[in-house]
């Protein structure tokens, strides 16, 4: 993610985490951004617009905007709110205007916010994780998703990356017309969540490709067959889980 400038802020706009590129753009040494408000590092003539966008983000909207930094430099920024544990944070992921679009900036921001958790692998109830994602996006998913939870066995993963993948899969349904069907289940070796979309995607989006990579890093896999997306993870204690070579490290926002 070194091609992205990443800031994580509290709801007041105070920076609590920033990657190396963000510090380089601000001309500050590592750690120099921490404790500053984002308005201190943005051009004064943008503050009025940024404050209006800030309020939209607090209402749950993801916004995109351009910040001109002079000397023919401009950042295209994606920013929104993310719930980490019991707290809310704002992420801002920027890329140079001349660089090719990536499309997975929201997922990058969510993973960076998840760094605050410093969580380890543990036993996770996949249904509980799925329900928390659906609850978080309930207002925007109304009429878009039907749910059929099954008996999904316990898996051993880092919860935040898998939660991010589930949110990415649900987001595929939000972007379509019609209703998607979400179900879960499993057997003695794997637990799974399936998202049957209303329409077949033309191709994998950058966000879906990022979901596939994160799932693989957690020892699982994400498959797409026609219009059905399936996230599967080895069941805790199974041979698949014991023999998984999935890394403990997800993409790090460093």
Would you write up a description of this structure?
The protein is of the alpha+beta class and 254 residues long. It folds into 2 domains: 5-114, PAS domain (Beta-Lactamase), CATH 3.30.450.20; 122-242, Histidine kinase-like ATPase, C-terminal domain (Heat Shock Protein 90). 30% of the residues lie in helices and 30% in strands. It has 8 helices and 12 strands. It has helices at residues 20-26, 47-58, 105-114, 126-136, 138-141, 159-174, 206-217, 239-242, and strands spanning 5-9, 15-18, 63-70, 73-84, 87-96, 122-124, 145-148, 155-157, 180-186, 190-196, 221-225, 228-234. The strands form 3 sheets. Strands 2-1-5-4-3 form a 5-stranded antiparallel beta sheet. A hairpin with a 2-residue loop joins strand 11 (221-225) and strand 12 (228-234). Helix 3 (105-114) runs antiparallel to helix 6 (159-174), helix 4 (126-136) packs across helix 6 (159-174) and helix 6 packs antiparallel against helix 7. The longest helix is centred in the middle third of the chain and has 16 residues, at 159-174. It is globular. The termini are close together. 37% of the residues are buried. Residues 245-254 have low confidence and may be disordered.
């Amino acid at each position: 993610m070194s091609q992205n400038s990443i800031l994580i802020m509290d709801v007041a706009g105070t920076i609590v985490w920033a990657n190396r590129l963000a510090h380089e753009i601000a001309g500050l040494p590592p750690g120099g951004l921490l404790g500053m408000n984002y308005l201190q590092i943005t051009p004064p003539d943008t503050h009025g617009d940024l404050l209006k966008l800030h309020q939209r983000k607090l209402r749950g909207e993801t916004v995109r905007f351009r910040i001109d930094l002079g000397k023919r430099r401009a950042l295209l920024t994606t920013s929104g709110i993310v719930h980490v544990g019991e707290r809310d944070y704002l992420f801002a992921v920027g890329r140079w205007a001349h660089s090719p679009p990536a499309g997975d900036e929201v997922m990058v921001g969510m993973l960076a916010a998840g760094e605050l958790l410093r969580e380890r692998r543990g036993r996770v109830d996949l249904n509980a994780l799925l329900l928390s994602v659906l609850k978080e996006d309930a207002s925007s998913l109304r009429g878009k998703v039907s749910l059929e939870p099954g008996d999904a066995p316990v898996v051993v993963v880092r919860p935040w990356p898998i939660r991010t993948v589930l949110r990415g899969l649900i987001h595929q349904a939000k972007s379509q017309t019609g209703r998607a069907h979400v179900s879960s289940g499993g057997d003695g070796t794997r637990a799974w969540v399936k998202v049957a979309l209303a329409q077949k995607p033309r191709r994998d989006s950058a966000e879906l490709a990022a979901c596939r990579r994160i799932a693989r890093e957690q020892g699982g896999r994400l498959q797409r067959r026609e219009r059905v997306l399936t996230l599967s993870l080895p069941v805790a204690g199974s041979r698949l889980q014991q023999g998984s070579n999935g890394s403990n490290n997800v993409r790090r926002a460093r």
